[in-house]
Amino acid sequence: MPNLASPWLEKQRHLIDFTLASLGRRKTKNLGLLVAYALLVFVLASLALFTNALRTEATFVLAGSPEVILQRMVAGRHDLIPPGYLDKIGRIRGVQKKEGRLWGYYYDPVVNANYTFMARPAEEVASGTIMVGATLARARGLAAGNVISFRSYSGKLFAFKVASALSPDSELLSADLVLLSEADFRAFFEYPAGHYTDIALSVANPLEVRNIAAKLAEALPDSRPILREEVLRTYQSVFDWREGIVLTVLSGAILAFVILAWEKASGLSAEEKREIGILKAIGWETGDVIRMKLWEGLLISLTAFLLGFVGAYIHVFHFGAPIFEPVLKGWAVLYPRFTLVPAVDGLQIATLFFFTVFPYTAAVLVPIWRAAITDPDAVMR
Amino acid sequence: MLFQPAIIALLMAAGVAVLMLTAAAPFAVQVILRWDIRSGSEQQLALERRTYLFSTLLSFVFVIQLAALLLFVFNADRLSGMFVGAMCAVGTLNVNDYGFPSLISQMGVFFLAAMWLAINHVDTRAPDYPLVRIKYGLLLLLLPVLVLSFWLELQYFLGLKANVITSCCGSLFSGDAKTIAGEASGMEAQPAIFLFYSGLTAAIGLALWHWRRGSRRSGYLLAAASAAAFVAAIIGVLSFISLYIYEHPHHHCPFCILKPEYDYQGYWLYLPLFTATAAGLGAGALQPFARVRSLASVIPDVSARLAGVAAVGYSLFIAVATYFILASKLILIEH
Amino acid sequence: MIELSNIKKAFNQGKPNEYWALNGIDLTLEAGKVTAFRGPSGSGKTTLLTLVGCLSRPTSGRVRFRGEDISGLPERFLTEIRRQSFGFIFQQLNLIKGLSALENVILPGFPTGRPRAELVASASQLFAQLKLEHRLHAKVEWLSGGEQQRVAIARALINNPQVIIADEPTANLDTALSREFMAILESFTAAGKTVLLTSHDPLVVESSAVHRVVGIRDGKLTDD
Q1: Residues of C in contact with A281 (CB under 8 A)
Q2: Measured between CB atoms, does B23 come within 8 Å of chain A?
Q3: Looking at CA atoms only, how far is residue B38 from chain C in angstroms?
Q4: Which end of chain A is more exposed for a tag (fewer CB within 10 A), N or C?
Q5: Class of domain A103-190
Q6: Does any CB of chain B come closer than 8 Å to the CB of residue C59?
Q7: If you count residue pairs, one on A and one on B, with CB atoms under 8 Å apart, how many are there?
């Protein structure tokens, strides 16, 4: 079997062998750098993984919401939909379903939180019963069969029996949700008969949504159509923006790391200088030393990246990213507990590389060169 | 502007590249004025030591450019969800007038850097560094190109506003559009297929010829053929290959094939194509210096190897494209 | 084999502490012979050795090795020649601590791209010749002075060079080990190698193994 290994390949193997031995000989110095490096990757990767998981979660959850929500505006503020409005929409091509929705906010002084009350058809929720979101259930200690009373805005006390708690799978959107029958809703809020909060429309073809929104705005000039794709885009924007802010804050950390890397690479001990001098004296040329040091940088980078990324993965998907949660999820009283779907994305990893390995390499290039041009002369004397 | 990590990363990478090349400029001037390989003076020795630094820096810049180009396209595709009317990278790039020029300039930098690296490699193999002045002169010429590329990219990202309605690939690459892209996409299948295969086969043939018995003439021809093959390949992708991948007779977009929905098939096409073109252009870039005595044996050797890479790259590209066509359920040509 | 014409070497050129280590040296060294350089410290002996051994370039003048002018060669090519044709034994020995004797010896072979197995085989052969087989894998800092000396010699020989250069080889050795070294030196000559060395030691300079002694003082040769 012919030996396919070219001299170039053998040489790289030799350089890697020497690098590994060399790293082993200076464990403490390199360990410090490795830890700092891995920590940086850990923090940045956690940020990226967490934000991406939130984005994915939002997209996934919003998939079930209607393509268009129509609100009525009076003097620029959201007002109730009057009776007959639904019919004014008439038949618009592409609209599969249109229904009036009933929902509103209720402030619970017990936990200092706002709940969203929503009316559902009688088949789903019987009169006198409610279904509550999992976070709400936890906050008020509710289980199926319990009875809970709410004081309406008119001062009257309404008692409801909890039929069930909503599944934790939908917790991100249903955290503060209370579902009740239409009759109960109207009675509780003293909602004017025949009025609705807004109208939900289902559209089959996503490309038609903008056209339909335009037609609706034409037919009902006092309405405001809200498109699901816009909501999604806004969420994406917000998460992007939040990620960007945290990243900017962390840029200080990246800079500190870059300076550390530069220092470590420049601060050659006398022993290291001597070693390089010896290598050059016995037949290594500057290019060989540079190549060897680049392998060193690459090995450190890959190890730190792997450690940091795996750590971040565990941090985010097993522990729920306790470090970033408050900043990235937003300000609210009721925090839903939801499991993030593990998702790793090529773009993320590539971007992560640009924020960690790239600055590190850029920082050590000049120190590596300076070390490599050590004059072997000194070693002779 | 969109405050998005990938964008920050791309701008940072481009900025650092410009900084590194700017730092190299004074050294380049020094080399052009004072280089004297025969001299043993300390000044000359210091210059020689410095060439190691700038060689390393520039190889680094080149690798980063390549990675940045991939990230740029990947990200443009990912960002398409943010813009109304955008379904893929084309929409994102069309948000303002700087998108496509930025992409083209980045590709230009990539190819120019490949050629510079070929010349650099050859120069260091000769004991008298015969091309050192030319090399650093070319570097000084590369700097404004890099600055322009950075500026275009910056303008593009600064102008990315989420509330702008952009057009999707359907309108840009439709056969009716009166643009170059439209013309290319609108080409009839049969002449397009003929142009594609003949152009690429010519390139492969020239590459193999140059690899076996290279000469200055074959080197220049190879560079020209590589450029032509690149254009033929892109036209091919626009006019018929993409149709087969999408299994849709009117979807001509060259970027949607990079999407995960299509199993990232686009990368299998573009990576060999770009590598082969860079290698072919590199081989041509070396030929002006083939008469230099000290490079008499080096240049034919290196350019032959580059020709080999080009041959392999283009063959791979043709093979993959043909596979996509045969494996597709679309029938464009009745026989 | 090695010709030096009007060699001058300066350090810190252009600066106030400019210093000329070599001031016009003309010298021809024959192949297969042992040449010893003697002179006081600061005379330029070591600088001369580095120049002859392709470790540095002259500020002016010509160096010819096997008829080829190597004075204008850039580092990369100079190193290539040095790797193939020259082996160095330093006064301080300069072995890398933390590595084994074997690893130290095969280091000069790394840039050549020779497979590791081949390098190890050559090293083992050398170790056998120098009676060091049992210390192959020992860390160099645990070796005795004499053993370290022999490891340094093995390292100089790993690429099978034509010229051996040794700087004050017996400076840190006792008489017995010095005699041992001179015996090894004779085996080099027997193998047809050229040897250049510097020494103060009369044991070396007056030894029968040495064919020629050259004096050097203040960067110039003195007749001997």
Answers
A1: 55, 88, 90, 94
A2: no
A3: 5
A4: N
A5: mainly beta
A6: yes
A7: 80
pLDDT given at position A306: 94
Which range of residues forms the domain containing residue B134? 1-167
Residues 6+ apart with CB under 8 A from B167: B85, B90, B91, B94
Q: What is the mean pLDDT of residues B218-223?
A: 88
Give the predicted TM-score (pTM) of the model: 0.82
Residue C155 touches chain A, beta carbons under 8 Å? yes
Q: Which helix (H) or strand (E) holds A116?
A: strand A113-120
Interface test with C, best of B31, B39, B123 (most C CBs within 10 A): B39
Number of domains in chain C: 1
Reading the block at residue A285, the tokens are: 């040329």
CATH code, domain carrying C194: 3.40.50.300
CA dihedral B28, B32, B33, B36 (to 10 degrees): 110
Nearest CA in chain C to A17: C110
**pLDDT (0 to 100) of residue B106:** 93
Instruction: Determine the residue among A275, A280, A282 to mutate to test chain C binding: the one whose Cβ has the most chain C Cβ atoms within 10 Å.
Output: A282
**Section A182-195 average pLDDT:** 90
Task: Find the CB nearest A361 among B60, B70, B71.
Answer: B60
Instruction: Please state, in angstroms and rounded to a whole number, the distance separating the CA atoms of residues B267 and B263.
Output: 9
What are the two backbone dihedrals, phi and then psi, of residue A166, each rounded to the nearest 5 degrees?
A: -70, 155
Chain A hits for B49, Cβ within 8 Å = 286, 373
How do residues B16-25 score in pLDDT, each as one tens digit? 999 999 999 9
pLDDT band at A1 (very low <50, low <70, confident <90, very high): very low
Within its chain, how far is the Cα of C54 from the centroid? 10
Provide the residue ranges of all domains of chain A, joining segments of one domain with +.
7-62+234-380, 103-190
For A227, the 3-state DSSP assignment is strand
- Model confidence at B279, pLDDT cuts 50, 70, 90, reads very high
